[in-house]
Amino acid sequence: MPQGATQGSPGGGITQPDADYMPFHPAPSRPGFVPPPGAVDAHCHVFGPAAVFPFASTRKYTPVDATAGQLFALRDHLGFSRNVIVQATCHGSDNSAMLDAIARSGGRARGVAVVDAEISDGELATLHAGGVRGVRFNFLKRLVGNAPKDRYVRVAERIAALGWHIVVYFESAELEDLAPFITALPGTIVIDHMGRPELANGPDDPGFARVRTLMDTSERFWIKVSCPERLTVAGPPYDDVVPFARLLVADYPDRVLWGTDWPHPNMTSHMPDDGALVDMIPRIAPDTDAQYRLLVDNPMRLYWPEERA
Ligand SMILES: O=C(O)c1cc(C(=O)O)oc(=O)c1
């Protein structure tokens, strides 16, 4: 049973957060950088509320609730227009909390789901109607225990007809082993959190080189320049992350996405100020054209293509 779970609660149901769980920043600063109109926060999560949407019994952590209302208030505070809500591992493959958040967004949120290989066509259609445009395959052992590749392949086959993409979350040190599998997946593949390079090695990090090689093999690969707070060794204001993100934005201007990663699950070193994260954007995307592609054009092509027609 995960730390924080309540004995006897149904399905691991209503819970207390893990004793050492860090809640999101209570009062993020208002950023000095003003995002272009229509900017999309393309990676964030909702948690619960657990009383309505219980966490999965298979979860590896029990967070503090982070609701749709709180997410949308942050969106407005930061000067963003839309969100892409990524199903968090603590909710397993029950996408209800994410779907509820999308339904409350007035068309200003879309989602990335986690689905089982056995999902029915009807359930997939319901997810699509609810705003889902992708699935996430997670390879981090601390989050999912094991990554069932055979099941991931079956899911990839199931979603092909829907025009969804696949989001992959891995540590760059694992990429040598994973690359053949990931490369064989069909369609558009989005790499989470810059492929998690080892910052201590600087931009010559071999894992980061592998991530860039993968990006170079095909225009099917996209990447999120997100999570400086997870990757940094130096800490805020994340000077050590800037060269990594800047290289990706410069080399793949049409295939980069940006997100807050609010509410920053499993942070232990510190909790980032989301306003300060937004203020990093001009440091990694120095001109207005790069900013527009990163924050508006790229995410709109992937998540709201019908609005660009
Ligand atoms: O690094 C993490 O702990 C983390 C966890 C989750 C999740 O639990 O889904 O999502 C993320 O984007 C990052």
TrEMBL record:
Entry EC no(s): 3.1.1.57
Residue ranges constituting the Amidohydrolase-related domain according to the UniProt record: 40-303
UniProt keyword list: Aromatic hydrocarbons catabolism, Hydrolase
Catalytic activity: 2-oxo-2H-pyran-4,6-dicarboxylate + H2O = (1E)-4-oxobut-1-ene-1,2,4-tricarboxylate + H(+)
InterPro entries: Amidohydro-rel, Aro_Compnd_Degr_Hydrolases, GLI/LigI, Metal_Hydrolase
Highest taxon of the lineage: Bacteria
Keyword flag Hydrolase: yes
Region feature Disordered, mapped onto this chain: 1-24
Molecular functions per Gene Ontology: 2-pyrone-4,6-dicarboxylate lactonase activity
Hydrolase as UniProt keyword: yes
SUPFAM superfamilies in the cross-refs: Metallo-dependent hydrolases
GO BP: 3,4-dihydroxybenzoate catabolic process
A Pfam family: Amidohydro_2
CDD domains on file: PDC_hydrolase
Entry-linked PANTHER family: BARREL METAL-DEPENDENT HYDROLASE, PUTATIVE (AFU_ORTHOLOGUE AFUA_1G16240)-RELATED (PTHR35563)
Membership in a protein family: Belongs to the metallo-dependent hydrolases superfamily. PDC hydrolase family.
Name of the molecule in the record: 2-pyrone-4,6-dicarboxylate lactonase
Organism in which the protein naturally occurs: Maliponia aquimaris
Gene: ligI
